[in-house]
Amino acid sequence: MATALILLAAGQGTRMNSDLPKVLHPIGNAPMFAHALASGAALDPERTVLVVGHGADQVAAEAAQIDDNILIARQNEQLGTAHAVLQAKEALSGFEGDAIVLYGDTPFISEATILRMVEARKTADVVVLGFEAADPARYGRLVTEGDTLRRIVEYKDASETERAITFCNSGLIAAEASVLFDLLEQVGNDNAAGEYYLPDIIEIAWKSGRTATAVACDEAETLGVNTRAELARAEAIFQASKRAEALENGVTLMAPETVFFSLDTYIGRDTVVEPNVIFGPGVTVESGTRIRAFSHFEGCHVSMGATVGPFARLRPGAELANNAHIGNFVEVKNAQIGEGTKVNHLTYIGDAEIGDGTNVGAGTITCNYDGVFKHRTTIGRNAFIGSNTMLVAPVTVGDEAMTASGSVITSDIEPGALAIARAKQVNKHMLAVRMFEKLKSLKAKKQKGQ
Questions:
Q1: For a Cys staple, 219 with which of 122, 131, 281, 365, CB 3.0–4.6 Å?
Q2: What is the pTM of this model?
Q3: What is the dihedral of CA 52, 153, 40, 264, to 10 degrees?
Q4: At what angle do helices 32-40 and 56-66 cross, to 10 degrees?
Q5: pLDDT tens track of the chain, all 450 residues?
Q6: 392 and 404 in contact (C-beta within 8 Å)?
Q7: First to last CA, the chain
Q8: Residue 350 CA to its chain's centroid (Å)
């Protein structure tokens, strides 16, 4: 059966004390709502609807960056969770299948849990996700009889017997889409807050002859993020999970607690990651690489057998071929580094392409920016770039060409040629001694005058 996701992301999140909509606060360098989307992707949903409200344009714009097929529904007034879900009805017009309601501020629901909710839908009209709470506090309680969910009771309305129940409501619900919207349209707002509550559909379902059940998950999956403290806790949980996943997948982390991942980080097996490494968004590291300490990655691709660092920075657009070497205090941006090529010391390579087997000496800079435009540098195969070479782009260095150390290269170099672009050295006999004597005398006079 086809499935659709309805992701609620309309809340303001006042306890975050922020101008940024709550669901845009990052966990693992991705907005928190992206984590729920990633879990829901296991269903290969036919449609995904994001219900936005506070900061709607910002949230919608971020969603488009993640997937431009996401449909946007607006909840202009925040009148409760049932009202929020109902805003997705138009976006799901004509859809036939199950709808799964997720929450943008509940980032850790797993793929496996969502799949179990879908499986449970085969035997019940409505499925609710619950959890055994260590401290039930003021959560809504799930009142069950065997596998049957009879109703959801809010804490304030619960009897002493019901408050003793530790099986609590996470808020996630699955139902056939047309059934879900039919139930939602019957929800009233006769309560102190005057809001329309999603859990009310369970009682309405039973009154209309439909069935409901509950699926349980670990309480950790239901963590909601409402404050900065909870955001910090969520980040710690995410990082711990990604580290464990990397280790399980055959990656060596020499000091796991010092390595930080993003939601989309991919690292292949038999890679060794030394301490204090940060993987920003958009990073792929293939198998058998060595990532040395204190390196930073973002928007880049590192191929098999490459070595990066220590103290290296790969920025967006950096592409390293097999067995490339990027060394200490080297920065690479929007550049392709060829197979076996070495850029080992104190170098900036930006907007460039370097062929296989080339060696780039220490202190080399591709001068790619003229103050208005960016320009490219192209270096061929098996070339040798002498230390402290300035390559003023646009410029091309041919295969097997060489630059002399300290050169400022402003013109193309044909294959196999040696380019020398520096002033002629002139030595002035004993001039250094005379200058130092003069300067020291001047300094002594100034100090005596003080």
A1: 131
A2: 0.91
A3: 80
A4: 50
A5: 899 999 999 988 899 999 999 999 999 999 999 999 999 998 999 999 999 999 999 999 999 999 999 999 999 988 999 999 999 999 999 999 999 999 999 999 999 999 999 999 999 999 999 999 999 888 999 999 998 999 999 888 889 999 999 999 999 999 999 999 999 999 998 877 788 999 999 999 999 999 999 999 999 999 999 999 999 999 999 999 999 999 999 999 999 999 999 999 999 999 999 999 999 999 999 999 999 999 999 999 999 999 999 999 999 999 999 999 999 999 999 999 999 999 999 999 999 999 999 999 999 999 999 999 999 999 999 999 999 999 999 999 999 999 999 999 999 999 999 999 999 989 999 999 999 999 999 999 888 876
A6: no
A7: 91
A8: 24
- Environment class of 50 (CB within 10 Å of its CB; exposed 0-12, middle 13-18, buried 19+): buried
Token reading at 334: 């929007």
Is 83 annotated as catalytic? no
Structure tokens at 249: 């997948």
The amino acid present at 90, given as its one-letter code, is: E
Catalytic residue among 54, 83, 345, 375: 345
**Using CA atoms, how far apart are residues 36 and 91, in angstroms rounded to an integer?**
19
Cα dihedral 214/136/25/252 (nearest 10): -80
208: its two tokens: 């209309």
In angstroms, the Cα distances linking 31 to 26, 55, 58, 243 are 4, 14, 11, 19
| Dihedral sign (CA 86, 87, 93, 95) | negative
